[in-house]
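Reopening: structure tokens for the NAP complex, inputs below.
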Amino acid sequence: MTSTTELLLPPSRIAPPMTAPALRWGILGPGWIAARFAEALRHHTSQRITAVASRNAQRGSAFAADWGIASVHGNYDDLVASPEVDVVYVATPHTSHFEHAKLALEAGKHVVVEKPLALDAQQARAIAELARSKNLFAMEAMWSAFLPKFDVIDQILTQGMLGEIGTVLADHGEHFDTDHRIYDPSLAGGPLLDLGTYVVYFAQKALGRPTAVTAVGQQANSQLNGQISAILTSATGAHAVLNTTILADTPNLAAVCGSSGMLTTEGVFYRPGNFTVSLRDGRSARFVDDISGYPAGLAYEAAEAARRITSDELESPCHTMVDTISTLETLDELRRLLGIDFPS
Ligand SMILES: NC(=O)c1ccc[n+]([C@@H]2O[C@H](COP(=O)([O-])OP(=O)(O)OC[C@H]3O[C@@H](n4cnc5c(N)ncnc54)[C@H](OP(=O)(O)O)[C@@H]3O)[C@@H](O)[C@H]2O)c1
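Re-run output (same inputs, fresh job):
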């Protein structure tokens, strides 16, 4: 007769976003994600948005009216110079992240920059160095990294609950209409830097930096890559099998599989959501998330930044600059392998 004990998952250590000290945020680039971020701050945190900057006065004013923001700036320079702003959230397209992160840091402001932090690892290193030299906080808004779900996954991996990890699977595919910015090569379009950031981030969370990368690509059109399937091999010989595409909706699932068991997500892996751990000894446990996707999930990254900035820390340990740079190094390698060139 065998007796099995119940499988218990570690509890999340992430405090509710509402409890983070309130900072004054300036939003740079009031587009799609900026609206969700503003909604997250307004309804799910005690953070204050004191300013927004747009290149278009009408768009800036409409955004300010929607989210009760007192100051609207008609250019980005004025926002970063504002004494009413503690931290700048950069929500412009990837091609501008480097320039706008630098703009904010040089004006003495802490920064939270949408993913990907920059176009490549070299730009990311320069942002990290600038922030450090100015004693300012910098963080990539890889929102998954700050969610309670990912804190529990982190602990499961650190505790070795799954045994030796041999395989990671992750896909992130979303069908976009061709008028979306993701189809614009001059905005570094294609899946690589947008959706691909998530699958590479997830693979490296489980397996660390790869020692070898292979990939095949499919064009969306003559100017733009549309799909990438990649295998990242780790130092232990483990494989991360990844897919990212802008040509079709895919299940967006992920799994981490080891010698003792596996973790499988339900629904979109990089958002809040449930997952199951099933061990080879028959035990299993389900993580049931009490957060839904946008906008509530975005509150965690803002709360994390506010906590770290208030305690004079320059980075978040949940997602360090080294993590960000190392993801971008792999994205650089995929870009090199597939000959993906972004017109400057
Ligand atoms: N965390 C997430 O889940 C998530 C989801 C979607 C996107 N993102 C990231 O967020 C960033 C923005 O994406 P989005 O979908 O929000 O883009 P979007 O809707 O096109 O908004 C981008 C904003 O940036 C400003 N901008 C500055 N320079 C620009 C340029 N050369 N071309 C176009 N817009 C420019 C525009 O604001 P003004 O003209 O008004 O100044 C525009 O509203 C991307 O890097 C993306 O990867 C993250």
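Residues 29-34, 54-56, 59, 91-94, 96, 114-115, 141, 143, 181, 187, 194 surround NAP (CB under 6 Å). The longest strand covers residues 212-221. Marking as resolved unless the reporter disagrees.
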